[in-house]
Amino acid sequence: MDTPAYLNPLLFNQLLNQVGQAVAWRRAVACPCVSRDSGQPRVDCVQCFGAGHIWGEPTAAQAGVISGAQAQALEGFGLLDVGDVVLSIPSDSPLYAIGGYDRVQLCNRTEPFSLVLVAGLNGVDFVVAQVDSVVWLDSTDTLVSGSVPEVEGGRLRWQGLVPPDGVAYTLTGRRYPEYYCYQDQPVDRPHQFGASLPRRVVLKRYGLLGR
To answer: Does domain 9-108+177-204 have CATH number 2.40.10.270?
Structure first.
């Protein structure tokens, strides 16, 4: 009888920790505002802001990251959409415990953004890498360039020329991409004699959740 082949979790972990990317993982908890009858969250909830989940503080982790365009082997199964990423998670990472609706921020990548906010009302719900410009229209529709704010915890801290309260303004800069775990749950490999091998999970863009 042939000797069964064993895969070594330690070697997989070493490889993924060497070539993987830094991520920040936030555990999701269902918000108590969600109706037991309809399953829908309250749109005016001050805890989840209508998303249906509350997220904890970020935990640093490491994982192998494959873009959806590169993971062609999964496309035939209908698992991937444009913009998805696939993680390969080592068993010694805290991210190994990822579950549904958890959020994962990629810390080694940035992407451009430009969005319209209302002064005094809105913050941002993603982690900003840098702010490049702030502009708004005055009463004569002249474009005004304001001071660049600091962003901490989604809140903007201003100094200098700022948009008046209630005025719409455009914030432009770069942010860290963020994803969430939807229907595709982390996959164990129990056929390998219970070994703690890396888990594979498909993540969706966070901007698609609750929008």
So the answer is: yes
Comma-separated ranges of CATH 2.40.10.270 domains in the chain:
9-108+177-204
Instruction: Give the pLDDT confidence of 166-189 residue by residue, as tens digits.
Output: 999 999 999 999 999 886 566 555
CA dist., res. 79 & res. 23, Å (int): 22
183 token code pair: 């229907």
Contact 179, 185 (CB under 8 A): no
Residues 3-52: tens digit of each pLDDT: 555 677 788 888 888 888 999 999 999 999 999 899 899 988 888 878 89
Instruction: Name the token pair of 88.
Output: 């390969």
DSSP helix/strand/coil, 17: helix
**Residue 57 identity:** E
87 residue type, one letter: L
Nearest-angstrom CA–CA distance, 165 and 149: 15
**Taking a C-beta distance cutoff of 8 angstroms, is the pair 177, 105 a contact?**
yes
> What is the structure's pLDDT at 121?
79
Residue 107 pLDDT grade (very low, low, confident, very high; cuts 50, 70, 90): very high
Distances (CA, A) of 74 to 93, 142, 143: 24, 50, 47
List the structure tokens of 192.
């390998």
Cα separation, 39 vs 57, in Å, equals 25
Decide if 129 contacts 173 (C-beta within 8 A).
Answer: yes
Q: What is the pTM of this model?
A: 0.77
**Cβ atoms within 10 Å, residue 14:** 13
